[in-house]
């Protein structure tokens, strides 16, 4: 039984690529130095998968910045402002597109579907002259082959590439990006031909836009594209990979009828309904790459459950045509659990990072082939049982509080106009009051103080003194500028989610659990492993301290429950909205304690509201309903005179909703 990995993290187990990139950008190292680090990472990844027994190992999933930008380079679709005059695209042009330079801005960056990864958006129009300008895919295939590893080259599919693009500046917004398909397919044919000549036997096209709500014209584009590529693909096994959601019946029908395609990669973690489509109709003789190992979370796979799913699929597609795979690229998870030295053994046993997921995939493939590693499966079953029964996971008081929520807990008792009147009498603000969003710049000295306090190198008294001095500077500056509603600047905080997660129960934190957000930027998401509660006040001391320094209103600053949820690795043993309600109840406790401490204006930041929006429009209403309910839970118990502001920063725009989002 065969195994496959959709893609793998690029940064390295200790962010080696990040540091090499930033050194190169700062002109502290050469292009050759950067390329040497990159080659070392690629080699170690391929060897790791080969040693683990993976049959279908991907190549060209490494990137110096972003895989969509790599495709833009491959197609020579460089916007004119970068002054590229043809030829192979080098680092200067590539990184100028990604980061801008002294004279021109970077290309737009946006979210990769509903993940926390960002891609560089192609800028296209009718006048773009496409040309084969980056041989990266072929070069990396040859590089792996020279190391003795036969890989599956991965390309962003032509239809998804165009659908993820935007009209360039000066091009009509109504311009059909799919009309460019005939112009880019010749480039794809050149790449395919070179890969065939180099010895490739398989090729993977990532077409994730197949999981979106697509109209007939968009679906037809897939049919047209692969019919055009069919003759060039002859002699190759072709895998079309989709991920992040279920396929609609129309998209599934389009997929399985594509010309020249050998195999279909499907996300069976987030796309559980897709299994019903497979059961109804799966083309005879085709391969199913079954994505049963979650590529977007850090929980160990329930091997027994996955094996049962695979056995059911085997009966449908045939033993020789079933390949065990990840649900999507492992780019979206941390690299290697081995590097986590501070997680306790119990929680660690519940987790699997990218390196461990590779092992899980192969273990499932071997089990399906009758070579089950009984000890490995037994250890996994023990960890699964431990997680289900651990008292650290379940908090009965939290469960009861969340279950007891009723309609009145999702709104304040009086209407918006009455609250506004009461708040105005209390706060006496001008018609258009001024404030700032919240955090002030953090100096190297401030970060040093925080770092030394955490390492027990300075006393708590000295730490508190230093933070108070910083708050006083911020307060004095705002008063000098005549700001109406002040903030304390948040000098005590490291990250807007991590700061709160460290003070909430049910959260764990890693040392090296870094995940790429974009370019060299990595984040270390908290892990929500259990029921969430607030053991003690989190921000009251610092907000009260700041309020004592001024007669003007001082805002209490909190991160909202939806943002904490969406910027964490979330437990997968209960619905996300239940976890969100638990976080909302914890924030509600903090809001009420701030009010008791005399803080009459409280801001709740929801920067990540848009990021949790499901890919399907039909699911938006349910998500927004429980998201807004979570907002309202946080402040339904405060007095009319307390003003609660919600700051929503997202692709919806920037809005400041007052008084429990009365406008929603």
Automatic annotation (TrEMBL):
GO terms for biological process: methionine biosynthetic process; methylation. Its cofactor is Zn(2+). Residues 3-316 form the Cobalamin-independent methionine synthase MetE N-terminal domain. It is an enzyme of class 2 (transferase). It catalyses: 5-methyltetrahydropteroyltri-L-glutamate + L-homocysteine = tetrahydropteroyltri-L-glutamate + L-methionine. The keyword Nucleus does not apply. GO terms for molecular function: 5-methyltetrahydropteroyltriglutamate-homocysteine S-methyltransferase activity; zinc ion binding. It comes from the Eukaryota. CDD domains: CIMS_C_terminal_like, CIMS_N_terminal_like. Its EC number is 2.1.1.14. SUPFAM superfamilies: UROD/MetE-like (SSF51726). Residues 432-644 form the Cobalamin-independent methionine synthase MetE C-terminal/archaeal domain. Catalyzes the transfer of a methyl group from 5-methyltetrahydrofolate to homocysteine resulting in methionine formation. This is 5-methyltetrahydropteroyltriglutamate--homocysteine S-methyltransferase. It comes from Gossypium klotzschianum. The lineage of its organism: Eukaryota, Viridiplantae, Streptophyta, Embryophyta, Tracheophyta.
């Amino acid at each position: 039984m065969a195994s496959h990995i959709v893609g793998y993290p690029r940064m390295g187990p200790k962010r080696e690529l990040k540091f090499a990139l930033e050194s190169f950008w700062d002109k502290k190292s050469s292009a050759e130095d950067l390329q040497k680090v990159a080659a070392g990472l690629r080699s170690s990844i391929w060897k790791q998968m080969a040693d683990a027994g993976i049959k279908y190992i991907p190549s060209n999933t490494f990137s110096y910045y972003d895989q969509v930008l790599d495709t833009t380079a491959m197609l020579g679709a460089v916007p004119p402002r970068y002054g590229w005059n043809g030829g192979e695209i080098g680092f200067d042009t590539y990184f100028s597109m990604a980061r801008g330079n002294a004279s021109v801005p970077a290309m737009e960056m946006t979210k990769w579907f509903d993940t926390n990864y960002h891609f560089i958006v192609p800028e296209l129009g009718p006048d773009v002259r496409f040309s084969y300008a980056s041989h990266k895919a072929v070069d990396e295939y040859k590089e792996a082959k020279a190391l003795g590893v036969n890989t599956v080259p991965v390309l962003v599919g032509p239809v998804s590439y165009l659908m993820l693009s935007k009209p360039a500046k000066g091009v009509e917004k109504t311009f059909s990006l799919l009309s460019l398909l005939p112009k880019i397919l010749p480039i794809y044919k050149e790449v395919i031909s070179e890969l065939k000549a180099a010895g490739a036997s398989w090729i993977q096209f990532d077409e994730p836009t197949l999981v979106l709500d697509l109209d007939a014209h968009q679906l037809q584009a897939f049919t047209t594209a692969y019919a055009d590529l069919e003759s060039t693909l002859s002699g190759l096994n072709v895998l079309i990979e989709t991920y992040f959601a279920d396929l609609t019946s129309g998209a599934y029908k389009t997929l399985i009828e594509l010309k020249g395609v050998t195999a279909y990669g499907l996300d069976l973690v987030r796309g559980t309904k897709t299994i019903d489509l497979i059961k109804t109709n799966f083309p005879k003789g085709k391969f199913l790459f079954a994505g049963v190992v979650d590529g977007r979370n850090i929980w160990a796979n329930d091997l027994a459950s996955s094996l049962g799913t695979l056995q059911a699929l085997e009966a449908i597609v045939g033993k020789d045509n079933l390949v065990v795979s990840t649900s999507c690229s492992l780019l979206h998870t941390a690299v290697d659990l081995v590097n986590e030295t501070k997680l306790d053994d119990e929680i660690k046993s519940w987790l699997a990072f990218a390196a461990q997921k590779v092992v899980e995939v192969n273990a499932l493939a071997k089990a399906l082939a009758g070579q089950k590693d009984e000890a490995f499966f037994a250890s996994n079953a023990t960890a699964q049982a431990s997680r289900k029964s651990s008292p650290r996971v379940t908090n009965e008081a939290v469960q009861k509080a969340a279950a007891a929520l009723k309609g009145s807990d999702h709104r304040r008792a009086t209407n918006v106009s009455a609250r506004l009147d009461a708040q105005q009498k209390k706060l006496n603000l001008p018609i258009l009051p001024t404030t700032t969003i919240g955090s002030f710049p953090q100096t190297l000295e401030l970060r040093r103080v925080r770092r030394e306090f955490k390492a027990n190198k300075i006393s708590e008294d000295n730490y508190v003194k230093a933070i108070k001095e910083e708050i006083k500077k911020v307060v004095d500056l705002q008063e000098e500028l005549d700001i109406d509603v002040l903030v304390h600047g948040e000098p005590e905080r490291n990250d807007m989610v991590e700061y709160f997660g460290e003070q909430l129960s049910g959260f764990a934190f890693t040392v090296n659990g870094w995940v790429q957000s974009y370019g060299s930027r990595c984040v270390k998401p908290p892990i929500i492993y259990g029921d969430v509660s607030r053991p003690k006040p989190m921000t009251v001391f610092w907000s009260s301290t700041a309020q004592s320094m001024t007669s003007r209103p001082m805002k209490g600053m909190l991160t909202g429950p939806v943002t904490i949820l969406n910027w964490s690795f979330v437990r997968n043993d209960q619905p996300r909205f239940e976890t969100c309600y638990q976080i909302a109840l914890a924030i509600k406790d903090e809001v009420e304690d701030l009010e008791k401490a005399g803080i009459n204006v409280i801001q709740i930041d929801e920067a990540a509201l848009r990021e949790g929006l499901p890919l399907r429009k039909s699911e938006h209403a349910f998500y927004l309903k429980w998201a807004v309910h979570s907002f309202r839970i946080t402040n339904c118990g405060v007095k009319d005179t307390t003003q609660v502001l919600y700051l929503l920063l997202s692709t919806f725009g920037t809005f400041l909703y007052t008084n429990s989002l009365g406008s929603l």
